[in-house]
Amino acid sequence: MNISDSDVLVVVDLQNDFCSGGALAVPSGESVVPEINRIAGRFENVVLTQDWHPCDHVSFASQHLPKRPYDTISLPYGEQVLWPDHCVQGTAGAAFHAQLSVTHAGLIIRKGIHREIDSYSTLYENDRVTPTGLLGYLRERGLKRIFLAGLAFDFCVRYSAEDARRAGFDVVVIRGGCRAIDVNGSVAATERSFKALEISCLAEL
Fold first, then answer.
1. 55 is catalytic
2. Contact 18/25 with Cβ under 8 angstroms?
3. Is 111 labeled as catalytic in the residue annotation?
């Protein structure tokens, strides 16, 4: 597949807490780092995203005892999965994986910064209204096609792809550059959603 100067690679949440030994480790999450480093070299335009939560974030199970991680609660914006405390602002867990080497990335977007709203998508918080700023950046730069890779396939990559497609972008998910959590059939649900929205999913690039 040819890559043009109107394409952008969005690398989603390749952070220590989502890798082996992290607070919310995606199985084999760090194994995508070499692939993403390789892929990123093909793009002039690259964006990195970071989960960046305050220590008392609403998505943390520790804020809803006796609830436990992976329980769900209802919040004003809908159902919320409760997670272990992760990617707390300024901590080592929130830092990018040490082997990630994408020095030409033009933008870092931090999401999940609002205590009362979780954020899976890199474009909108989970209330589907509050923007992260990425959408404006993409449009102002004249970028037309979004490639996505990172963690996790069935949450932050999925929601980012869906929002980008609904915003009118062509979207390609690089499956070989993602790893999944798979909570309650979330991988199968992601695949169904991508098919319905005509989001391309490539094994590799």
1. no
2. yes
3. yes
